[in-house]
Structure formats: structure tokens, C-alpha cells
Fold this protein.
Amino acid sequence: MAQPKNYITSEDLKSHNKPGDLWISIQGKVYDVSDWAKDHPGGALPLLSLAGQDVTDSFVAYHPGTAWQYLDKFFNGFYLRDYTVSEVSKDYRRLVSEFSKMGLFEKKGHGVLITFCFMAVLFVASVWGVLWSDSVWVHLICGGLMGFFWIQSGWLGHDSGHYQIMPTRKLNRLVQILTGNCLAGISIAWWKWNHNAHHISCNSLDFDPDLQHMPFFVVSSKFFNSITSCFYDRKLNFDGFARFLVSYQHLTFYPVMCFARINLFAQSFILLLSKRTVPYRVHEMMGLVVFWIWYPLLVLCLPSWGEKVMFIVASFSVTGIQHVQFCLNHFSSNIYLGPPSGNDWCGKQTSGTLNIECPSWMDWFHGGLQFQIEHHLFPRLPRCQLRKVAPFARELCKKHNLPYNIAPFWEANVLTLRTLRSAALQARDLTNPVPKNLVWEAVNTHG
């Protein structure tokens, strides 16, 4: 005789949304992941962000079919009494199922091999030019080639973090450490921690770290209230110094992007040297050590300090194109305050994202992020499949009245600068008081 089911309501579920008390619902069944959160491969933060909600759509987006078999050990015996599925969620899950049957999540093409070959050519050309040429112009070009090398390395690191680009998990892990830590100087552990939070909380001002660039940039005047970052677990203070920088952010955007990589270097070390639990911490540190050996040695091979600085600036500036791309996809899109909504997965992902319109022969340059909407809806989908599924994503958005924003590369730049300028002009409003800061007062003193 079947046992009667125990039911709770969505309101009851909402109360279990704190560290040590994390419940989630998947297809109406309730799971207690309180103890397991620390072992979650995607980190505890995605679970914390979505705790107390039905997370079926996000689970479907991030997990292969094989993951369902592991859920039962977390089932706590409860079901959602008021569990419902929206029409957009039904269609979204149907698409994921169809893509799985078509094998699109496994068909990775030859993109990885081609990218590795391209990277090898860029790296060898850059090193050869530094070691065997005396021309200043050649050295300048070599710095630019190194920047392009880092961009392609970044795309591979991004892909290997979302899905298995190699035949085995160990090889995939090796590629992550190689492309991220060893070749680019950026901890793949930091990137995954940051990037998972971004995807789950796309364009939430207080949950998405990709919008939290105080004091350099803000995309909304809501930051003027010194909101608390749930990612960094600290207050983002909008003081006089921040007001000064933000007031000119539309003018400093590209110069800062040229050196944004320095922040990624710093964030990598901050995480690895912290008390936070970091998987494979030793591997991560060893990878960074490799980078900080080969890159400085290469720079030191240049004949003068002027050329050394020129090479560094060129390599950082060119790879800054990639950092600009990251901003274009989200800075000018809709934003919101608060945690992400599990019941509005598709809506939040599409409204906070902008696609970049480009011909297929330019796909290598954008690394798949030109299909940012498709990537956010189907994050496990290999880069080579994004153009193929774009019509399906567009139709999903059209059918359910969801935004599908797309703009050419240059127009996306204009939209981003317009967003930054709007916030900058609001920051200059001195009727909105902030704590006094000598830099701000000195620059704006008149008479």
C-alpha cells in the first residue's frame, strides 16, 4: 500500500533559504541540500541564491540527464502542493530534451583542436619575434599577438568550465589549468566561482558579480545607495571617491578595460590565499606560478625598459577587447535588485542579456558570446552549436513575449557607453549627499 505524500506550500519552502537550512524543489519534489552545499561542484552560492524555490529550469540548464539519479539521496519526503509549470518552462524543457536527443550537447566539433592550433601559432610567433628580432615594431606586434593568444585561451577556459571539451574529466581539468592558470595567469577556480554566480543571478545588482565594479563602474543609480553584495558579502560603498570615478566612467571605460586583467590577477590570488574552500588549491597555485615565471621572463628578454612596458601594454590592451565583450553582453540590459527567481528562469536570462550580431566567419573572434542569450539559456551547449539553436531560442522568446535583444558590435558599444554616461550624469548630482572625500572636493571646488 502506497504511503500518503507529505505536502508543503511554496511559502513553507521559502523559509528554508539560509546557510545550514537549504531546501529546493525540482519538479515538485523537495530536496534538502543543506549539508551538501559545500560539496556542490558549482559552489554553494548558486544553491544559496535559489534556495527556497523551485529550481527545475536551472537544474535542467546546468545538469546532464545523468545527474537526475543522484537526487533521491537528498529527497526529504515532501512535495510542493502548489507546484505548477508555466508554458514557457514547458517549452524550454522540451527544447533541452530535444537538443539532448539530437546529441547537440555531445557534438563539440573540431573547434577545440582548431583553437589550440591557432593559439600555438600566436604563441610561437610572439615568442619568436621577441627572441629573434631587434625591431621595435615587431616587438609591438608580438605584444598584440600575445593579447590575441590570451583571448583565445580565455574562450577555451570558458568552454571547459561549462562543459567537458575533452574526452575525459582529467583531461578537461588539465585544459582548465593550462588555459586559465598557466597560460593566462587567471585561476580557473576563481573564474568558476564568479561565473557560476553570474549565470544563476544574471544582472541582479546585488547577486551578480559581473555588475559589481564599484568604484570604477556602475550601470544603475541604485548603486548610489551603497547596496550589499551577496557575492562578496560586503557593502559596496558609494563614497566621494567612487562618485568621482563614476562621474567620468563613460570616458574611462576603454582605458580601464585595457588593464582590467590586473584585477583578474589580483582576484585569483585573493581567492587562493583566502580561507575559502578551493578545490585543487595546490594545482591552482602551481599553475599561476608557471604563468608568473614564463611571462616575466619573456618580457625581460626585450632590450629596453621602454620596449618591456610597450609589450605589456600592448598585450593587456588587446586582450582588453575580451573584457569589453563581457560588458557589452550585459551592461545595457535590464537589471534588478534581489535574488534570482527560479520560476522566471527564461525571463531573467533573456532580459539581462544582449546578443552581438556578426557573420559566421567572425564567430572565432567572439568565442560564442555573440550568442549570449542562447549561451545563458543552454550553458552546457558547445560553442559550435549556438548558431544552430539560435532560431529555436528566438522562436521561444517570440512565442512567450520574452526579449531577444541583439545589436551589431559597434551599436552594442554605443548602448553600453550610453548606460554608463546616464549613470555618470546622475552621480554628478551633488544634491545626493555621500560621505565627504578629499579627492572629490578638491576636483569640484569652485571659486
Notes: The radius of gyration is 23 Å.
